[in-house]
Amino acid sequence: MKIxxxxxxxxxxxxxxVTVTATLLALAAAGTAAAGELRATVRNVKPNQGKxxxxxxxxxxxxxxxxxxxxxxxxxxxxxxQVVFPDLPAGRYGVVAFQDLDxxxxxxxxxxxxxxxxxxxxxxxxxxxxxxxxxxYAVTVGAAxxxxxxxRLVE
Length: 155
Prior knowledge:
Helix content is 26%, strand content 34%.
């Protein structure tokens, strides 16, 4: 009797971790399947001149604080660059891009802080007397599927 109850208790303890692990794997797979993807096409790139710096912001606060959720820095080889942000939870996102012509890793500015390098925002949004607000360039990404946006670089 004692051996049978020990085996039963031991089996129960072994089944519990397997069940928990299987449940966690199922939840992780469900989370990945429900994630959205944002594809940003950056146009008007000057080929073979530096990199295109692309940043993804997930809120107006993150934009204001200059704290992107993700960033890509592809070489500017063609007149167009596509960047993919996978596995995004449903929400609003904004993409900002500039072409780092002098390859110094930051946006060069001229008089009064006016950008001296090609730059742009998702939805090809433009601001007047400064950059557009986050609401002007935010794109809604669903829980699944692909959302696309375009950024036209201007000087």
